[in-house]
């Protein structure tokens, strides 16, 4: 599975958009990009995933570059409850569950 | 509501004792997984099961055992052979790959095990 690189931590003002980057330069053609987040002392929560096209759901948007070597998770209007560790993972869809969770990005949303 | 229930939330044991962590799901998922998380670290896969009565070792299976007698349940036993059992244990489930393409993982809220 491809390795991902994320910043260790980021801050965002409440109500502003939070843009979380992820580099995955060794991603292969059939690997998807998944995003999960983990609020302190809870289980991770699935956010969104994509292959090539940009994706949007009720939680976030995922922007994947044309060469697929990086992506950005966008929380359009961050709230204090969005403070969490955000994990970017690339994985074959056939390997669901065998996800490699790195250390992620700790997002701190500030009032 | 459908979900995954892990119990208890906190568990304390003496060194040398086996302990079993419970995981129950009512999402009708075929696949279930156990992960371990240490402070400041990502998750590491212990065991997974794609179907009842079948399971496979993950990356760190030594010192652990599982059973999958029912679709809804996937208990994890931390044996005395596990050298560093104190950790946060997370159970997850999903529809298996191939049947439901790209089915995401659904996690429970974990059991924090402390062994002294």
Radius of gyration of chain A: 13 Å
* Number of helical elements of chain B: 0
SSE pattern of chain B, N- to C-terminal: EEEEEEEEEEE
Strand count of chain B: 11
Query: Percentage of helical residues of chain B?
Result: under 10%
Specify the oligomeric state: heterodimer
Report the uncertain regions of chain A: none
Biggest interface, chains and residues, is:
A-B, 23 and 33 residues
Helix share of residues of chain A? under 10%
Characterization of the model:
- The complex is a heterodimer of chains A (111) and B (116).
- Chain A is an all-beta fold.
- Helix content of chain A is 0%, strand content 47%.
- Chain A is built from no helices and 9 strands.
- In chain A, strand 5 and strand 6 form a beta hairpin.
- The mean pLDDT of chain A is 91.
- With 116 residues, chain B is mostly beta strands.
- In chain B, strands 2, 4, 5, 6, 9, 10 and 11 form a 7-stranded mixed β-sheet that branches. A 4-stranded antiparallel β-sheet of chain B has the order 1-3-8-7, with no helix packed on it.
- In chain B, a hairpin with a 5-residue loop joins strand 4 (31-37) and strand 5 (43-51).
- Classes of the chains: A mainly beta (111), B mainly beta (116).
- Chain A binds chain B through residues 32, 34, 36, 41-46, 49, 87, 93-104, and chain B through 4, 6, 31, 33, 35, 40-45, 48, 58, 88, 90-92, 94-98, 101-110, 112.
């Amino acid at each position: 599975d491809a390795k991902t690189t994320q910043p260790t931590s980021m801050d965002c003002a409440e109500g502003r958009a939070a843009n979380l980057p992820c580099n995955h330069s060794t991603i292969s053609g059939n690997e998807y990009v998944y995003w999960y987040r983990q609020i302190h002392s809870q289980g991770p929560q699935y956010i969104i995933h994509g292959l090539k096209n940009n994706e949007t759901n009720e939680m976030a948007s995922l922007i994947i570059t044309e060469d697929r070597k990086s992506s950005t998770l966008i929380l359009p209007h961050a709230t204090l409850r969005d403070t969490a560790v955000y994990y970017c993972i690339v994985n074959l869809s056939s390997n669901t569950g065998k996800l490699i969770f790195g250390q992620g990005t700790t997002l701190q949303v500030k009032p | 509501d459908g979900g995954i229930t892990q119990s208890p939330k906190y568990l304390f044991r003496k060194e040398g004792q086996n302990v079993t962590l419970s995981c129950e799901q009512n999402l009708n998922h075929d696949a279930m997984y156990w992960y371990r998380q240490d402070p400041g670290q990502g998750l590491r896969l212990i065991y997974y099961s794609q179907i009842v009565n079948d399971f496979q070792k993950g990356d760190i299976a030594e010192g652990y055992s599982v059973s999958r007698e029912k679709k809804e349940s996937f208990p994890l036993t931390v044996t005395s052979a596990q050298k560093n059992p104190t950790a946060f244990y997370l159970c997850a489930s999903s529809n298996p790959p191939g049947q439901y393409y790209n089915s995401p993982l659904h996690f429970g809220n974990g059991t924090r095990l402390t062994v002294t």
